[in-house]
Amino acid sequence: MTTIASGKTSRMPQGFYWLILAQFFSALADNSLLIVAMAFLHEQGYPAWWAPLLKFSFTWAYVLLAPGVGHLADMAPKGLLMGWMNAVKLAGALTLLAGLHPLLAFALIGMGASAYAPAKYGLITETVPPSRLVAANGWLEVTVVLSVLLGTGLGGLLVSDLAIGLLSQLWPHPPAWWVDTRLATAFALVLALYLLAALLNIGVPRRSARLPGARLQLRPLLQDFRRSNRQLWLDPLGGLSLAVTTLFWGAGAVLQFAVLRWAQDVIGLALDRAAYLQACVAIGVVVGAGLAAHRIALNRAATMLPWGMALGLLVAASSLLTALEWALPLLVVTGAVGGLLVVPMNALLQYRGHRLLSPGRSIAVQGFNENLSVLVMLGLYTLLLWLGLPIVPLMVGFGLLLAAGMAVLMLQLRLKRA
Asked: How many Cβ atoms are within 10 Å of 47's Cβ, its own excluded?
């Protein structure tokens, strides 16, 4: 079995916290925009199954552009690349305000995000020593989940009738070229978050490019990406952690929308209040991620697999509840279990990827597999909604699928160690 570095060093490197803040506000804007765009689709009369297509449009670039964005992250200074890609995301939000269809606007935002991710994670791998990777990932996952929590809550607030009425009084006459919607000012506030992320990016560490002067050529890129993907999957620890995170994020993307639908159909909440219920899961993930960052060493990451099986069973159980007072604590516990699982596994995957490949290429391989899982599972979820399957059996099915997948991975790990 491959060995892993363990131990502790001192504080995080200079500039690490600027990176955390910059990516937090960029992700905060992404998550707020998702809720506002869902409300916009509802306002425009689209059926409910269109909502997950927003995430689908956002995610496609992570899969199709994966062979190139890893090399791009190694060809350019990663801090600078993060700034460029934040500008692309800002441009996507502007086109939505200008009247472009939300699915096309989210596709453009996804293009920026797909190149932003390898730069962000790769910069952490380059600046943080292996003994601090779990702690660094704990910081990162806490802020990512906080961006989901606060972004979802902010989006829910912005689409509430009270906020819409107040914002329309504060700014009664938006520019004439903006899309004709009650949510125009809500969209503008999301743009301000992207601008803030761009300003914070000034403090992100400036590292030299790992492959300066390299060129992006399609055939060599595809060949190299295929080899890199195979190499990471065949590595005992890299393949294990990649399988866990791929399954986790695919199921998590579905549950992001399923919890909203469940809160509306079963609990009877409106979209703005359902968004707060979804935030309960995010609160739990923050707690679990924090515990993992301080309690789980990198060389113990593989021991967290039973938490993955428990996560699937908790998802299935929570969907059967019909009382809000029981659902809230169980959703928090579900999120905490998810945080305990994904932080060590993500750190293990980054560690192995950094040793086997370059940081940009390894993160691109990770993003390709995880987001391909997101596309497949979101496509299946959208199809089942279109066919009229009720949300409760749908959530039970996805929860049991997640538990079964983790059980298979646990069995494989035991067989390899035997």
From this structure: 10
